[in-house]
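Course assignment 3, question 2. Fill in each field.
Student: A.L.
Task: Predict the tertiary structure for the chain below.
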Amino acid sequence: MLHRVVLVVFVAVALNWGMSTHVHAANSHKGKVVETSDGKLVMTDMKGKNEHPMEVPASATVTRDGKQAQLTDLKAGDTITVTTAKKDGKAMVTKVKAKAAGM
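Answer field:
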C-alpha cells in the first residue's frame, strides 16, 4: 500500500513539474519592420497597424532570407517572425527571422 501512495505522489509531482516548465515556452508573432537600430526593433502587425518597439539583445539570432544577419540589415517592410522567451518574468527576444519585402 505504501508503494502505491509513493508512486501516486511521485507521478503527481512529476506532472506538476512538467506543466510548470511549459509555461516558459517560446512564443512567436509575425509582423513587419518599421525601423531598426542597434538593439532596437520597431515593428507592426501584418496589417501595418499596432506599431511597437522591442529591445533585441546581442544574443538574439537574426536572419534575413535564410542568411545570418545583423538587426540593422533588416529593412522597412520586411516580413518578420519574432520569437520571445520568458526570462526572469520578462519577455526577451531570442530570434528574429526576416524575409525581404516582396518575397
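Instructor remarks: Confidence is low (pLDDT under 50) at residues 18-23. The domain at 27-99 is CATH 2.40.50.320 (OB fold (Dihydrolipoamide Acetyltransferase, E2P)).
Grade: pending
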